[in-house]
Amino acid sequence: MGKTVTLSDVAAAARVDLSTASRALRGEGRVSPATRQRIIDAAAELDFRPNAQAQFLANGVSKTVGVLTLNAPAIFAMPVLTGVNTALGQLDIATLLYDARTDSAVLQESVRKLHARRIDGLLVLGAGVLRSPLHSISAGFDIPVAYAYATSDDPKDVWFMPDGVMAGRMAGEHLLGIGRRHIAHITSKSDIGARDRETGLMQALKAAKVPLALGKPLRGNWTRRWGAEAATQILEQKASVDAIFCGNDQIALGAYGVLRAAGVRVPDDVALVGVDNWEGLVGNGDNLLTTIEPNLFNVGRSAALYLTAATEGRYEPGAHYEACTLVLGETTMGSGIRTATDPEGLI
Amino acid sequence: MGKTVTLSDVAAAARVDLSTASRALRGEGRVSPATRQRIIDAAAELDFRPNAQAQFLANGVSKTVGVLTLNAPAIFAMPVLTGVNTALGQLDIATLLYDARTDSAVLQESVRKLHARRIDGLLVLGAGVLRSPLHSISAGFDIPVAYAYATSDDPKDVWFMPDGVMAGRMAGEHLLGIGRRHIAHITSKSDIGARDRETGLMQALKAAKVPLALGKPLRGNWTRRWGAEAATQILEQKASVDAIFCGNDQIALGAYGVLRAAGVRVPDDVALVGVDNWEGLVGNGDNLLTTIEPNLFNVGRSAALYLTAATEGRYEPGAHYEACTLVLGETTMGSGIRTATDPEGLI
DNA sequence: CTGAAAGCGCTTACAG
DNA sequence: CTGAAAGCGCTTACAG
């Protein structure tokens, strides 16, 4: 392992000035084909790798994006962050994550550090609806700022979210598509995610001129327990329900348990759709639940790509909603969804 | 927004040479208290933030760690990566992620880029047992290398893993602790994770002089379906079993469904313990399953901290196992585990 | 204690 | 087409 080879070494080997070598290597400026080739050969010969730090300093960039978050290990933040990391890595851009928790002093200090590092862009991650302290962040930066898995009340901001309305619409259309006409909705109350999914469901029902079963959604919280309780209510009402769109997978699993225990066949009597697809990520291909995958990874990726392309003015401000995906499972498709290698359907 | 303020500006404002300013600001070298204070005041006044890129170049560091992985979005990789990001961010170190998938050419190119960037350390993430192509990576680097959620067959390597043996031991001790003496084990076959958990369970049983129920583990795969099938087998054998340690949560959930459907009370008749705690992360406090949390976030953090401290020689080579945590749930504690705010226990 | 100088490794006008 | 020079913004021996 000799010393690190530098541009001067290449220039010397090719018997040119290092400015000429610099030009040749990046294909700019007038350089005769002959000397260019000589320089390129010398670089290859010496296995020259230009010092990125030096280039950054000379170019005034850092190839680093700052990520500010209030709670990185949150389950919803991790896929977004992974999407950010992956997309930026493909562009040779590093990620500097500051987890500010709720401490405003830490946040201020983080912003200073990001400034010092001359970051090329700033991502604010998973803060829910944006509060003022975070909001003011963008003020001090003359670089692109985006919000991922967070929204803002300022229309000049740019943010990226999963498409909750689409999730609800897809769930509704799928249930209608398999012939269900008495579709109930169990969800959480007073939550923007819940509202969007409900809106989407209602769009689908309206388009098919099918009313919502029970007249209105059952609103509780996001837990499996609430799903069980709401399903129990539905059973007790002896309402005519042949499908339930559950606001998330936990609710769906809770409802599933109660329905099965009551001897209700799923999906034959009642079909079930959830949202989140955590089971799908973990479940080694179980495919129990039909669910809507919110593609959080893509939310992170889109936000990251925006940041790197923002200077080119290719993006509109405001909200960007990432498409979600329908994941089929037994709760709407029955055991037909099972894989050929494991056809017994033992669960 | 005027121009960016530089060290020269500070020096000029304090009427000293910039070399003096540099020394004063970082507290090194002989500088009289008076002029030092003058310089510090000037810096504060001008809101000086030293250009990190320039410092890196001068110091020959990058404050960037490279992360090489074969599949970043994998469910087990995300928490590890998040742990890495968070720990490094606290040290003002950026992360550059290259997701090489299985392409060896991409991998080689990634290594070149990491070299060019003069990364301060390299983390290989979640590759399972290390194969030769990845293994050779460390050869070209004269910086610390660590493996996170991956193992190596070279004892000179350093790697960080969740403690699978401890997971099995904790599960066993917990079941013994609540009075169970007929503990069965459902797990996956031919998997290093499965083997470690089994080893730990057997340690706990041996210490208590309690034999494994059924004589040996039921080995299948990691799916909920296998959990259901194995539980069915146990029921059919009419074996005397009052607890099952399941190799992961999916198996536990599959077994849970079958037991409940067969009228077996959980945990009164049969207690259940899983491993992974995904439900806990997602479940909004449902606490259905008693499970072992592998603390993957900590695995990532430890690997990251090793990388930054490696030069100080504070770490041993070889394996480092991160402690896991017992998460109590209804499947061993009954409804007593329920939160006070939601005591009905409807599921 | 303080300043003048060289250096980190590259880029980029500017002359020839 | 090519080279000599200044610059990116800091650090660090080396003199005084």
Provide structural commentary.
The structure is a homodimer. Chain A has about 350 residues and is α/β, with parallel strands linked by helices. The first copy, chain A, has 3 domains: about 5-50, 434 Repressor (Amino-terminal Domain), CATH 1.10.260; about 65-160 and about 295-320, 3-Layer(aba) Sandwich (Rossmann fold), CATH 3.40.50.2300; about 165-290 and about 330-340, 3-Layer(aba) Sandwich (Rossmann fold), CATH 3.40.50.2300. Chain A is about 45% helix and about 20% strand. The first copy, chain A, has 14 helices and 12 strands. Chain A has helices at about 5-15, 20-25, 35-45, 50-60, 75-90, 105-115, 130-135, 165-175, 190-205, 225-235, 250-260, 280, 295-310, 330-335, and strands spanning about 65-70, 95-100, 120-130, 145-150, 160, 185-190, 220, 245, 270-275, 290-295, 320, 325. In chain A, the strands form 2 sheets. In chain A, strands 2-1-3-4-5-11 form a 6-stranded parallel sheet, sandwiched between helices. In chain A, strands 7-6-8-9-10-12 form a 6-stranded mixed sheet, sandwiched between helices. In chain A, strand 1 (about 65-70), helix 5 (about 75-90) and strand 2 (about 95-100) form a beta-alpha-beta unit. In chain A, helix 1 crosses helix 2 (about 20-25) and helix 10 crosses helix 11 (about 250-260). The longest helix of chain A has 16 residues, at about 190-205. Chain A is elongated and about 90 Å long. The termini of chain A are far apart. Mean pLDDT of chain A is about 85; it is low at about 340-345. At the A-B interface, helix 4, helix 5, strand 2, helix 6 and helix 10 of A face helix 4, helix 5, strand 2, helix 6 and helix 10 of B. The first copy, chain A, binds a DNA duplex (16 and 16 nucleotides) through helix 2 and helix 4.
